[in-house]
Specification:
By secondary structure, the protein is α/β, with parallel strands linked by helices. It has five helices and 15 strands. A six-stranded mixed beta sheet has the order 6-7-8-9-11-10, covered by helices on one side. Strands 5-4-1-14-15 form a five-stranded mixed beta sheet, with no helix packed on it. It starts with 7 loop residues before the first strand and ends with a strand. The relative contact order is 0.19.
């Protein structure tokens, strides 16, 4: 049962980049072990309401990597629902085939007493992101005007300041026009949480807070050749009943 004083808590994890071989390393990191370490830590916390994976499940595009992701979630023995989005590396057909075991949820809306979380598909035919105008129209139609809004997506909707920006959201201008129009109609979009960038940061654009999630695989440095860390991390989002959001980065 929820109470007005308890925040709605989301564990966001992202970018695990699994292989068909659990022993293979990605930039020196055993990504399978990193993922299971993160999921174990999330499962041990009894105050989390749900988990959201914001994409890039696979690195080698193998069918086994999808099976291993489902296996890792099953091994964690979650008592909470797990929502997910496709990243630029991912195949939606493979996701639909394997992310069907408990506790995966296919909804693109997460509803709470005071909050509505919208999962936006930003996968395109290229590594860059695209939220289609159709998806933006559907977002406007399904928003509950009586609840605060958090949007979650794979690609970052603003430039971060290093090489990953060339693979960011292609239609930033159209996206922000839609967000601002919705907020002008008092629809309360408070924040956007994304993956893809492999590092934790917090920015603000047009009075909307933007949270980027660290990766379970590796944390990127400023150049493609240099990793900042091969240790896993994830983000906790605390959604309060008054519309404010607090957050912390967890390094298990």
């Amino acid at each position: 049962m929820t109470t007005q004083n308890k925040p709605f808590i989301i564990a966001q994890f992202s970018d695990c980049h699994l292989f068909a071989d659990k022993k293979v390393k990605h930039f020196g990191a055993n990504v399978w072990q990193n993922l299971t370490q993160v999921l174990t830590d999330i499962a041990l916390r009894d105050n989390i309401d749900c988990a959201v994976f914001t994409g890039d499940l696979t690195q080698d595009h193998s069918e086994l990597s999808y099976q291993y992701f489902a296996e890792a979630v099953a091994q964690a023995k979650f008592t909470i629902p797990v929502y997910f989005l496709a990243g630029n590396h991912d195949d939606k057909e493979m996701i639909a085939k394997y992310l069907v075991v408990p506790n995966f949820q296919t909804n693109n809306i997460i509803s709470h007493d005071f909050w509505q979380v919208q999962l936006l598909d930003s996968k395109s035919e290229t590594p860059s992101g695209l939220v289609s105008e159709t998806a933006l129209d559907e977002l406007a139609q399904r928003i509950d005007k009586n609840k605060f809004q958090l949007l979650m997506m794979h690609h970052h909707p603003v430039d971060i300041g290093y090489y990953i920006d060339k693979h960011g959201l292609k239609n930033q201008q159209v996206f922000w026009q839609a967000v601002n129009q919705l907020n002008n109609e008092d629809m309360k979009i408070k924040a956007i949480a994304c993956g893809h960038v492999h590092r934790a940061s917090q920015l603000t654009k047009d009075q909307v807070d933007i949270y980027t999630c660290p990766a379970t695989s590796v944390q990127f440095g400023d150049t493609k050749e240099k990793m900042a860390s091969i240790l896993p991390s994830y983000r906790l989002l605390y959604l309060d009943s008054n519309g404010t959001i607090a957050s912390e980065i967890v390094r298990p």
